[in-house]
């Protein structure tokens, strides 16, 4: 024997409302539709459920016997619905976000706190790395990059451009004077990439710089930052990160805009936890 669960719900609503017309109003249907559903259920069960007395209906003995089972079915259906809703609303598991060291240290933490408040069961792992992690090979779930990805199976969102400028500490300025474009050749610039690579990046700026301006380098942005704080030279830092450091002074010799992209694997867009983190970071940095 098989029957339509929607017809069972209609049966229960008729019982609770006391009439076909009342059930029709409660269900947002017409009375003839409710009557057809009850008739279909009676046909499927091969039994009469109601006796019609004017505008009201009265349960038959079989209808009364059936009512307890139907209410139990309704309670179980509600529990299934609640369980499914809870599962769909809870976001747990790990999301790995990779970004540069400065972005990871000074920009991401407040965003991660907001995400954690929204999804307290989520595990957030930050990969602070200045190199490009391979999202296709699942070395990370989400990446913040300064170049648009070329792989077709990656999904990218353009963020607000990263504004870069020179920063120095007061001790360096006191010892060497305030840097200008004309005096820049006599100053030290600390780089967190290879000196030759930094010179190639700055070639279009027409700044008078040579290899001798880069006596101090590091593969780590955080180490380079500490070198700046110790007065060894200036560094080109993102304003979003350097603005949080009260001990550094922006040097007015020009700024540089770097494009920024938020990237994830296209298959991960359907993951609720990936989507939650991706959208939150994307909205905050767009």
Provide a short characterization of the protein structure.
This protein is of the alpha/beta class and 286 residues long. It has eleven helices and eleven strands. The protein has helices at 5-17, 20-27, 31-45, 61-89, 101-106, 108-118, 170-176, 195-202, 221-229, 239-242, 272-285; strands at residues 50-53, 56-59, 93-99, 122-128, 142-145, 154-158, 162-169, 189-190, 234-238, 248-258, 261-265.
Count of all domains: 3
Low-confidence stretches: none
Order of helices and strands: HHHEEHEHHEEEEHEHHEHEEH
Radius of gyration: 33 Å
Give your account of this protein's structure:
By secondary structure, the protein is α/β, with parallel strands linked by helices. It has three domains: 5-89, Arc Repressor Mutant, subunit A, CATH 1.10.10.10; 93-161 and 260-285, D-Maltodextrin-Binding Protein, domain 2; 162-255, 3-Layer(aba) Sandwich (D-Maltodextrin-Binding Protein, domain 2), CATH 3.40.190. Helix content is 43%, strand content 22%. The protein is built from eleven helices and eleven strands. A five-stranded mixed β-sheet has the order 4-3-5-11-6. It has a four-stranded mixed β-sheet with strand order 8-9-7-10. β1 (50-53) and β2 form a beta hairpin. α1 crosses α2 (20-27), α1 (5-17) packs across α3 and α2 (20-27) crosses α3 (31-45). The radius of gyration is 33 Å and the shape is rod-shaped.
């Amino acid at each position: 024997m098989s029957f339509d669960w929607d017809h069972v719900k209609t049966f229960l609503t008729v019982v609770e409302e006391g009439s076909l017309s009342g059930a029709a109003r409660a269900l947002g249907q017409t009375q003839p539709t409710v009557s057809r559903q009850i008739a279909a259920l009676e046909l499927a069960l091969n039994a009469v459920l109601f006796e019609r007395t004017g505008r009201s209906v009265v349960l038959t003995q079989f209808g009364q016997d059936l009512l307890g089972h139907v209410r139990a079915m309704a309670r179980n259906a509600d529990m299934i619905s609640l369980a499914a809703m809870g599962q769909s609303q809870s976001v747990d598991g790990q999301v790995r976000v990779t970004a540069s060291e400065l972005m990871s240290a000074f920009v991401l933490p407040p965003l991660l706190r907001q995400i954690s408040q929204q999804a307290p069961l989520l595990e957030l792992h930050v990969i602070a790395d200045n190199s490009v992690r391979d999202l296709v090979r699942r070395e990370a779930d989400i990446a913040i990059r300064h170049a648009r990805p070329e792989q077709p199976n990656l999904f990218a969102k353009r963020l607000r451009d990263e504004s870069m400028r020179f920063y120095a500490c007061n001790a360096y300025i006191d010892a060497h004077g305030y840097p200008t474009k004309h005096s820049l050749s006599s100053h030290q610039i600390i780089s967190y990439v290879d000196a030759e690579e930094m010179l190639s990046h700055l070639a279009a700026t027409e700044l008078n710089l040579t290899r001798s301006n880069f006596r101090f380098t590091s593969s780590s942005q955080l180490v380079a930052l500490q070198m700046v704080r110790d007065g060894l030279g200036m560094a080109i830092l993102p304003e979003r990160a350097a603005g949080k450091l009260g001990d550094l002074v922006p040097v007015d010799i020009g700024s540089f805009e770097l494009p920024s992209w938020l990237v994830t694997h296209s298959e991960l867009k359907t993951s609720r936890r990936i989507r939650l983190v991706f959208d939150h970071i994307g909205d905050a940095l767009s």
